[in-house]
User: Which sequence fits this backbone?
């Protein structure tokens, strides 16, 4: 199938296909006599695999690693190790986001909205004006 058709079926744009090719995530397709790229039918599945992995937070480098493991028929334990590492990374990000949320909530609670912008506690906290005046 041609580039445009593959892009439409996989739900990506043509530039994404070319980028995946350059990164080695998608094998370079053969060419028609006219010079147009001719992708195999399984290219749609590969692209959807990449997109689903990205939705779970995997980087393209991690996706490439998983695809290489799949290509060499590696044990599932190797893929699981990558997924477990990603899960730990996500858990760490969640902890960080919760800390950010607590900090923001404290700023919002401390903010007296009847003050002018000059006395806004959020602006002061973000610009360290309190420390400068002490």
Assistant:
């Amino acid at each position: 199938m041609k580039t445009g058709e593959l892009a439409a079926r996989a739900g990506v744009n043509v530039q994404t296909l070319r980028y995946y090719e350059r990164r080695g995530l998608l094998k370079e397709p053969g060419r028609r006599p006219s010079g147009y790229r001719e992708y195999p039918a399984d290219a749609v599945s590969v692209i959807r695999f990449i997109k689903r992995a990205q939705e779970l937070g995997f980087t393209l480098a991690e996706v490439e690693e998983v695809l290489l493991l799949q290509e060499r028929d590696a044990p599932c334990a190797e893929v699981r190790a990558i997924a477990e590492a990603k899960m730990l990374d996500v858990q760490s990000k969640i902890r960080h986001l919760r800390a950010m949320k607590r900090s923001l909530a404290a700023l919002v609670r401390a903010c007296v909205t009847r003050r002018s912008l000059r006395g806004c506690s959020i602006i002061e906290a973000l610009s360290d004006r309190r420390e400068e005046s002490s």
DSSP finds seven helices and two strands in the chain. The chain has a mean pLDDT of 92.
